[in-house]
Write a structure and sequence with these properties.
Blueprint (H helix, E strand, L loop, with lengths): L1 H11 L8 H18 L4 H8 E8 L9 H8 L8 E15 L2 E14 L2 E16 L2 E13 L2
Parallel strand pairs: 1-5
Antiparallel strand pairs: 2-3, 3-4, 4-5
Helix pairs in contact: 2-3
Length: about 150
């Protein structure tokens, strides 16, 4: 009987949502990229939805943007056309997890069109993620980049 109970639990009881935090953080980073590549009306709510309520971003050469309003104003300025992302490649170098916090180190290659001009840039990125109510969110995002010719 004991073997039956163990087998039943292994087969039919849901596995922990926390079974593979590294894979979950990697998926969050990928989702961030995938949303930007949509280039449609779902980008703003999608990206903002990935952020923790008290998220902050630190674009290269800019002060820390530590409110949702400041982040939204940086990425989605009211009254201005959005950039069209034409390429966004990412690599993950390392992921460290400890409980409900994770740090991802990665690199990116990005091209976008804004106001008729194409810009290409490459750089490094650090994403700090926090698990909130079982779901990973972006707590902080920091990047450096260099124009690519």
């Amino acid at each position: 009987m004991r073997h039956f109970v163990i087998a039943f639990c292994l087969l039919f009881v849901p596995h922990s949502a926390y079974a593979n935090p590294e894979a979950d953080v990697r998926a969050l980073y990928q989702e961030y990229r995938d949303i930007w590549l949509k280039n449609d009306a779902t980008v703003e709510p999608g990206i903002m939805g990935l952020l923790a309520p008290d998220a902050a971003i630190m674009p290269q050469g800019s002060p820390v943007l530590s409110t949702r309003e400041a982040i939204k104003g940086f990425w989605f300025p009211e009254g201005q056309a959005s950039a069209t992302i034409t390429r966004y490649d990412q690599t993950v170098e390392k992921i460290f997890t400890e409980g409900d916090l994770a740090t991802l180190y990665g690199a990116f290659d990005l091209s976008f069109v804004w106001e008729g001009a194409t810009t290409s840039t490459a750089g490094t990125q650090m994403m700090i993620a926090r698990r909130i109510n079982g779901e990973w969110k972006i707590q902080s995002l920091i990047w450096t980049s260099t124009p690519v010719e």
